[in-house]
Design a protein that fits this description.
Strand 14 and strand 15 form a beta hairpin. The chain has four domains: about 200 residues, no CATH class; about 160 residues, no CATH class; about 140 residues, no CATH class; about 120 residues, no CATH class. Helices cover about 40% and strands about 20% of the residues. The strands form six sheets. Strands 1-9-3-5-2-4 form a six-stranded mixed beta sheet. The protein starts with a strand and ends in a 5-residue tail after the last strand.
């Protein structure tokens, strides 16, 4: 067997497919990529990321072949055929994009530098440009730039032209190609199986550690020792993966996608050591601040660890000297607002880059707060902010903080509530009105955070399914009050449950707003008007699964808000498969909602799904819990209402996955 090696331009490979000079041997599987995967490949070419090599086989045997899933491939060949062993999904996808295949309508947003499949929303927005249109060269870059400026693109003309030109030159990217010669079909079959055997998905953190280990021997040991230190201190979530993210933030000023192997090759060991020193120093200042000033004894309750990275940069690089109390308050104020707003659930890399840049400016605390917009309005949490929120919501984290701050104690041991303790002392959330007493209410109301209190496992077991009317008399009034539970006796029966939620939301909202105000530094203008603490306040997305023991069922979505009313459905089996692939394999996918294919995308540590008027984003754990929640509460398919399935065509509001029920 001989192996020839070469480098071929994408454009030449496309021509070879069109001339049927690249063919599929019968052993190849069918084309399976979804539009989101195609968009990701185009993005890799655009970004200059590695996108793999190709493996061909050239033979005189003329094996049985099957057609590529492309259109327009019928020209006469001018050279002997090559049989494609590895690279079918990539080459087919690119040919589809280059030839306007109806299932590969990839569009590009110049300002966001983002690719995705065409949708009703992108068709209505002139800032999205079809990649095929750019590749065809039918319109000049200058005229496209003028059109984008007229549509409101904030970039200057040079930036727009550079980005459009980069897309137009995708055909100039090259594949490394290996061609097997002088080997038989049986040998080729074995090679094909080995090459295409599935391996474990490597996250960016895995790749970062592999690259760093080769560049800076001993780095993994440093990270592991640091992670062990914080695990002993109760901050076990500061593991090797998180440390690698923080390290990338310090070194390159952004998220994991802000660096590449080429960038790392230009960094010397001294610079790597300085960056690691910044991470160590930043954490040794930050964790005591969280413990002492915020009362956060353990890392577990933190909804987002990414929000710690700008603070690590700031504290790790600030001059050695005393910190003013108001500066410390301002940093925690920023952390609380960033958490409530789920700042890194969407556009995580962009926002992280902006915040790290702010952390390195002369007045970093003010600049961080400026990024959140709190210099223009005072964030306020209202009872309406908490309506429909569950334990997945960032507001649940605040409910723990205000309970601790209010001296809340466990209802069995009378100890201060403390997350992360083991055995009977382990902190749990308890339904104040037990589920068993609320069969007339829907799951969104039952699991509302206003119906949840923090108590130990032992106390939870003792209360079991008893009504508040039964067990409240055995709990001291002061203990209930510390958990912001209204004492009115007429709110303890199941029939009064909706009124109980209204009253407790009001008490919690007042306490949360006071918590934020206590950290708001005096040097911020206190005469500003108040505004919603989070842009998602007032919006709600409910999900209900309708199915049976023998049917996976359909998932019904209902979106509501001040100016939004929308209903949609999707096949639960497809939705769950796409979400689970994103969660477990880090693989992008697609799902059909109301007849429209929408992407399920992995963006850093978040998974993002457009659902009607919302861009829903959450961690793998949050999405896994959502799928499990819906399966556990499935209703009979016979009760599913009729839905007028209409795709969403307007702008989408960012909504944390924790704000769904």
């Amino acid at each position: 067997m001989h192996i020839d090696r070469a480098t071929l331009h994408v454009s030449e490979l496309m021509r070879q497919i069109t001339r049927t000079e690249i063919r599929l041997p019968e052993l190849q599987r069918s084309y399976v990529w979804r539009p989101t995967q195609v968009a990701k490949l185009v993005d890799s070419l655009y970004q200059g990321f590695p996108f793999g090599s190709l493996l061909f086989w050239q033979s005189d045997e003329a094996p049985v072949t099957r057609s590529l899933a492309v259109t327009g491939a019928g020209e006469q060949p001018v050279q002997p055929p090559l049989y494609l062993l590895d690279g079918q999904q990539r080459l087919t996808s690119l040919h589809r994009v280059f030839h306007d295949h109806p299932e590969a309508q990839i569009v590009f947003h110049v300002e966001k530098e983002r690719f995705q499949n065409q949708s009703a929303a992108t068709q209505a927005d002139p800032q999205w440009i079809k990649v095929y249109t750019l590749l065809q060269r039918g319109e000049s870059i200058i005229s496209m730039t003028r059109r984008l400026k007229d549509a409101g693109c904030p970039l200057d003309e040079v930036q727009i032209e550079d980005r459009l030109s980069a897309v137009r030159s995708l055909g100039e990217r090259t594949f490394h190609v290996e061609t097997l010669r002088e080997c038989g079909y049986q040998e080729v079959s074995e090679i094909f199986v080995r090459v295409n055997s599935a391996g474990r998905h490597l996250s960016r953190a895995d790749l970062a550690m592999s690259t760093l280990s080769a560049k800076w021997p001993g780095v993994l040991d440093k990270f592991q020792k640091e992670a062990a230190h914080w695990r002993r201190a109760g901050y076990g979530d500061l593991d090797v993966e998180f440390l690698s993210r923080a390290f990338a933030g310090v070194l390159f000023g952004g998220g994991m996608s802000s660096w590449s192997v080429n960038d790392l090759s230009r960094v010397g060991e001294d610079e790597l050591a300085r960056a690691w020193g910044t991470v160590e120093r930043g954490l040794r200042h930050l964790v005591p601040l969280l413990k002492a000033n915020l009362g956060l004894a353990r890392s577990g309750p933190l909804p987002s660890l990414v929000a710690l990275i700008p603070l690590i940069v700031l504290l790790g690089e600030r001059p050695d000297g005393p910190m003013a109390a108001q500066t410390a308050d301002a940093l925690l104020y920023w952390l609380l607002i960033a958490t409530v707003r789920a700042r890194y659930s969407t556009s995580s890399d962009t926002n992280l880059t902006r915040d790290i840049q702010a952390a390195r400016k002369p007045d970093p605390a003010r600049e961080l707060l400026r990024n959140l917009g709190v210099l223009q309005a005072v964030p306020a949490i209202t009872a309406e902010s908490l309506a429909g929120r569950s334990k997945e919501s960032p507001y649940f984290f605040l409910s723990l903080l205000v309970a601790q701050r209010n001296g809340a104690r466990d209802w069995w041991y009378a100890t201060s509530i403390m997350p992360g303790e083991s055995d009977d002392f382990q902190l749990q959330y308890h339904h104040v009105h037990p589920v068993a007493t609320l069969d007339r209410y829907d799951k969104g109301e039952i699991n509302d955070l206003a119906n949840l209190a923090f108590i130990s496992r032992k106390a939870n077991l003792k209360i079991s399914d008893r009504s508040p009317a039964d067990y409240f008399p055995s709990v001291e009034a002061a203990t209930l009050r510390a958990h912001f539970i209204p004492l009115d006796e007429d709110l303890r029966a199941a029939a009064a449950f909706p009124r109980f939620l209204v009253q407790r939301r009001r008490l919690l909202a007042e306490a949360m707003t006071e918590l934020l105000a206590s950290f708001r530094p005096a040097w911020l203008d206190r005469t500003l008007p108040s505004g919603p603490a989070a842009t998602s306040d007032g919006y709600k997305l409910t999900m209900v699964l309708y199915g049976s023991a023998w049917l996976p069922g359909r998932l019904l979505f209902r979106a509501s808000g001040a100016d939004v009313e929308w209903t949609g459905t999707t096949e639960m089996e497809d939705f769950a498969a796409a979400v689970e692939a994103a969660c477990t394999e880090g693989r992008d996918g697609d799902v059909e909602i109301n007849g429209e294919s929408v992407p399920v995308q992995v963006l850093e540590d978040a998974i993002e799904v457009p659902i009607g008027p919302f861009l829903v984003s959450g961690t793998a754990q949050e999405w896994t819990e959502i799928i499990e929640r819906e399966r556990a509460s499935m209703r009979s398919v016979a009760h599913m209402p009729a839905v007028a399935e209409k795709p969403w065509a307007g702008e989408r509001v960012a909504l944390p996955a924790g704000s769904t029920d």
